[in-house]
Specification:
The protein contains six helices and nine strands; from the N terminus they run H-E-H-E-H-E-E-E-H-E-H-E-H-E-E. It is α/β, with parallel strands linked by helices.
């Protein structure tokens, strides 16, 4: 797992010395640390080798985001859905405590695994993410809740988070009212661009 964390973590910011001429008095540089999917199926060990250096790197960001690529419910608590995001992902809710110890403060679980354990699994995940205190968006009990931005206050300013999904099972069991905000791409070409 150490390699996965080292390889996945990307810090997005510009060095202060490069920004000096662009900043006005009283303005601050805001830093972002983001990783892709966190797929954790078991509790993370407490004495993780390399933990401190990884956490200190992640905590350089004001906003520190990860995509929660699993559902949070106990084994047997929720039935598997007819459709999955490719495989059925589930872990115990306490895993969020382990992830937060790395310094993350924002997340979304608006992804292809959100409905792996049907409505009950979705709502349990939503409940557990809310309890964690992590700022999250893109999923809710209805479309209004899912589409609302969520805000993180930092010492260098406010960060808004919205989450959308372009890769989601379109079967009838995943209704828009469930509260998973998604986008669809459509491509068109004029007749003049199509070769005869």
């Amino acid at each position: 797992q150490r390699c996965v964390w080292h390889c996945a973590v990307k810090e997005i910011h510009q060095k202060p010395e490069k920004m000096t001429g662009l900043l006005k008095r009283g303005e601050f540089i805001m830093k972002f640390t983001a990783v892709g999917d966190i797929i954790v199926q078991k509790r993370l060990p407490r004495n993780y080798e390399g933990f401190e250096e990884i956490r200190s790197f992640i905590e350089q960001g004001d906003a520190r985001f990860f995509n929660l690529e699993t559902t949070l419910n106990y084994e047997g608590e929720s039935c598997a859905s007819q459709f999955s995001g490719g495989t059925y992902l589930r872990t115990n809710p306490e895993v969020l405590d382990d992830i937060k110890k790395f310094g993350f403060n924002m997340t979304s679980f608006n992804n292809n695994h959100a409905m792996d354990f049907h409505y009950e699994g979705f709502f349990k995940t939503l409940e557990n993410v809310k309890k964690s205190g992590l700022v999250h968006s893109g999923a809710g009990r209805n479309l209004a809740e899912a589409s609302a931005p969520r805000y993180l206050e930092t010492k260098n300013g406010r960060v808004a988070l919205i989450s959308v999904n372009s890769n989601f099972e379109s079967s009838g069991s995943f209704q828009p009212l469930l509260g998973i905000l998604r986008i669809r791409s459509a491509w068109s070409m004029s007749n003049s661009r199509i070769a005869p």
